[in-house]
């Protein structure tokens, strides 16, 4: 089981700094459990986090499966939805995903770098 309390402050801080007020939620997860670390105050608490975690968790093994492709190493995944985005980062057996309002796609590299930096220290 991951120590989510030790991740809460640095991961939320990294995501809030990179995303700002467009950050909707932040979830950290491992292959066996998860914790919602942040939920913006104007959002409903009844979101189906379990469903998102179950899907994002499927990619733990796939991250390494890309190997040394002509595209380079896997960095992060962005999923686009009609009302915003989900960005997922997996590093060293830990994962995190943030949901955002709509924002410029170019900003996701900065978000991923900040989140990865925290996950690699766990």
Characterization of the model:
It is a single chain. This protein is of the alpha+beta class and 122 residues long. It has one domain: 2-Layer Sandwich (Beta-Lactamase). 35% of the residues lie in helices and 27% in strands. It has four helices and five strands; from the N terminus they run H-E-E-H-H-E-E-E-H. It has a five-stranded antiparallel β-sheet, with helices on both faces. Strand 3 and strand 4 form a beta hairpin. Helix 1 packs antiparallel against helix 4 (108-119). The longest helix has 16 residues, at 4-19. The radius of gyration is 14 Å and the shape is globular.
Provide the fold topology:
Layout: H1 4-19, E1 23-29, E2 34-39, H2 49-57, H3 60-65, E3 77-81, E4 84-91, E5 94-100, H4 108-119
Antiparallel strand pairs: 1-2, 1-5, 3-4, 4-5
Helix pairs in contact: 1-4
Pfam family, one: DUF7522
- Bulk shape: globular
Distance N to C terminus: 12 Å
Task: Report the order of strands and helices.
Answer: HEEHHEEEH
* Unreliable sequence segments: none
Helix/strand class: alpha+beta
Oligomeric status? single chain
Mean pLDDT across all amino acids: 87
Note the beta-strand portion: 25-35%
Q: How many distinct domains? A: 1
Pfam family, one: DUF7522
